[in-house]
Amino acid sequence: MPNQRRELILEQLGLLPRWVPRHRARPATQRVNAAAQLAPQTQARAETGDERVARILRSGWVELKEMVRTCTDCPLHKARRQSVFGVGDESADWLFIGEGPGAEEDARGEPFVGQAGRLLDNMLAAIGLQRGRNVYIANIVKCRPPGNRVPEPLEVARCEPYLLRQIKLIAPKLIVALGKTAASNLLHTDASIGSLRGRLHEFQGTPLLVTYHPAYLLRNLADKAKAWEDLCFGRDAMAKLKAGERLNAGQFAFN
Ligand code: SF4
User: Fold this and answer.
1) What is the 3-state secondary structure of the chain?
2) How far is the CA of 210 from the centre of ligand 1 (A)?
3) What atom of ligand 1 comes closest to residue 74's alpha carbon?
4) Domain definitions of the chain by residue range
5) Which end of the chain is more exposed for a tag (fewer CB within 10 A), N or C?
6) pLDDT in tens, 60-117
7) Domain 49-242 carries which CATH code?
8) Which of 59, 159, 181 to mutate to test the pocket of ligand 1 (most atoms within 8 A of CB)?
9) Percentage of residues in the chain with pLDDT exceeding 90?
């Protein structure tokens, strides 16, 4: 993860692509495996990890979607039916980020389309929003973790550049992290949702708020009221952001 963050900073400073000596670009085990697979005179040189990240971070929508569609860069590709890129208005003010596709999302290729998705749609409607209209929905990982388990750190790290590029291309005014996996990976913290909600955070300069994942709310109905508070908080924050106010992390919170 630190690697990807460093690459993003380099990209924003206009310092990519960063050339890395090939003998240092990948761990020794990967170099050995790659060397065993390549017939030097007949195959093109394999892309290094840094080159992959650089390519993702400078891609446009079309190239990015194709990269995700065909990606085999972490073990999650083995059991997926299809990768789930994300859906919505590509210049939305609101960006909702969940954990990863479930069974129904894996089958249909769209995030949040099962029971949890219907609840998310209802939550959006409650604050006057609608999927696809000024709203974009994405996940931390693009392929379904088997058995709906939490994605492993390696899987998150390999998938992270895709999400970073989506965020950069969308340039949302506000990010809403849905659930623990999204919050902990975007904010790099192990803190509980309960301790993170109720105030504004920041993700690389974009205001971010944390609320419960709709799948959690389906199992914990009592917390729906808290999610409603969070969404109203987001609606207030968005109104201020649209009015041109700068909302600093930690300085905008529930009364
Ligand atoms: Fe690639 Fe992400 Fe799918 Fe892993 S989860 S195979 S990194 S698209």
Assistant:
1) CHHHHHHHHHHHCCCCCCCCCHHHCCCHHHHHHHHHHCCCCCCCCCCCHHHHHHHHHCCCHHHHHHHHHCCCCCHHHHCCCCCCCCEECCCCCEEEEECCCCHHHHHHCCCCCCHHHHHHHHHHHHCCCECCECEEEEECCCCCCHHHCCCCHHHHHHHHHHHHHHHHHHCCCEEEEECHHHHHHHHCCCCCHHHHCCECEEECCEEEEEECCHHHHHHCHHHHHHHHHHHHHHHHHHHHHHCCCCCCCCCCECC
2) 24
3) 4
4) 49-242
5) C
6) 999 999 999 999 999 999 999 999 999 999 999 999 999 999 999 999 999 999 899 9
7) 3.40.470.10
8) 159
9) 77
